[in-house]
Amino acid sequence: MQPSHPIPKATLFSAAVIVAALGYFVDIYDLILFSIVRVSSLTELGVTPGTPAMTDQGLFLINMQMGGMLLGGILWGILGDKRGRLSVLFGSILLYSLANIANGFVQTIDQYAWLRLIAGIGLAGELGAGITLVSESLPKEKRGYGTMIVATVGVSGAMLGYWVAGFGWRQAYFVGGGLGLALLLLRVSVFESGMFEQVQAQAGVARGNFLSLFTKPARLGKYLRILLIGVPLWFVVGILVTLAPEFGKALGLTGEVTAGLAVFWCYFGLVFGDFFSGALSQVWHSRNKALKVFLGFCATLVAVYLFGVKGASPATFYGVCFVLGVSVGFWALFVTVAAEQFGTNLRATVATTAPNFARGAVVGLVPAFKYLSGQLGFIPGAAVLGGLTLVVAFWAVSTLPESYGKDLNYVEE
């Protein structure tokens, strides 16, 4: 169903783009902060470094955070289509900011875990709402550039997280929460999506019905394929990079590596990857072609990470982490594709649940990795799991309809 009234379009550097970019910056800072401070924070809470408990407790806390993102993805996605993109954008920022401030005061691992769950729920809303708002606000020929700006600015938040963590892990959580609360002051400069307001005024249009994604086989198939595209990134970040110290030992590196520095270099690479993947999708007039190229690039770098740096120096390993980050820099492009595949009454639901279900795939990837590494070995287990996620993602892209230049001013029946 196509609404009849034209929607005014914003400029590329409008308030919506700027606020979405800054929101994603704080989102990534807080999302990846635990990977940076995992060892230092758990050590202070009584876990001995270099023991299996350090790995197990770290994976437990990652699962709590990602589990929260699974719940939050559904919650914020539905609210985004029922109440509006702005309410989700700023509501999610408020929740994860308060949770991260509280995280700076934890004294036990149980407290840590519950606050990572709450923070995960909050972190689930910002990206999907921001990308939806930007996609609906910009002309269709510039959508890719807008989401490229959001991603390029946003992923650099991880680098700030690494730098701030040097002052102490508790202080790093305080700073993250404070940045989010400061961002809320910009709310007055951002306007709601015209497409959403138009659909909101229409009688009889069901908005934010998450279950409707499962009522038609074609719609469900498209949704599931979108989810699969984002899983390789979280295999890389959630397994390969977060467990960099463990992989460093398994690879026999000449010196010790830290997860914090591995995350820093990976996300530094992501800045460039998100820029180039978004730009290529615009230049080639094809989201799918750009995604295929980056998935192939990612497969090559995963192989280099696992088999090409045995006995190398930490500097070489970090260099590979940087290029690996470039190769998975298709995250915002993936979320843009999710937003472009569905109508206005389901767009926020899809654009918010898809990245969070992809992020939440870590909940399944972790036990799968533990099983495969137990059966095959640490490195072969990672290779099998990574290869599987990449093959499935490439298939998903290959069978998904092209969405570049698609008119988004319509609703799902």
What is the highest CATH level, the class?
Mainly Alpha
Largest sheet: none
Q: What fold name goes in the CATH topology slot?
A: Growth Hormone, Chain: A
Which range does the strand content fall in? under 5%
How many distinct folded domains? 1
- N to C succession of SSEs: HHHHHHHHHHHHHHHHH
Low-confidence stretches: none
CATH homologous superfamily grouping: MFS general substrate transporter like domains
Give the strand tally. 0
Report on this model:
The structure is a single chain. The protein has 413 residues and is an all-alpha fold. The chain has one domain (15-184, 213-398): MFS general substrate transporter like domains (Growth Hormone, Chain: A, Up-down Bundle), CATH 1.20.1250. 75% of the residues lie in helices and 0% in strands. It contains 17 helices and no strands. It has helices at 15-44, 52-82, 85-103, 109-137, 143-155, 157-165, 169-183, 194-200, 217-241, 244-250, 259-283, 287-307, 314-327, 331-340, 344-360, 362-376, 378-398. Helix 1 (15-44) runs antiparallel to helix 4, helix 2 runs antiparallel to helix 3 and helix 5 packs antiparallel against helix 11 (259-283). The longest helix is centred in the first third of the chain and has 31 residues, at 52-82. The protein is globular. The model has no long low-confidence stretch (mean pLDDT 87). This is MFS transporter. InterPro entries: MFS, MFS_dom, MFS_trans_sf. Its main location: membrane. Pfam families: MFS_1. Keywords: Membrane, Transmembrane, Transmembrane helix.
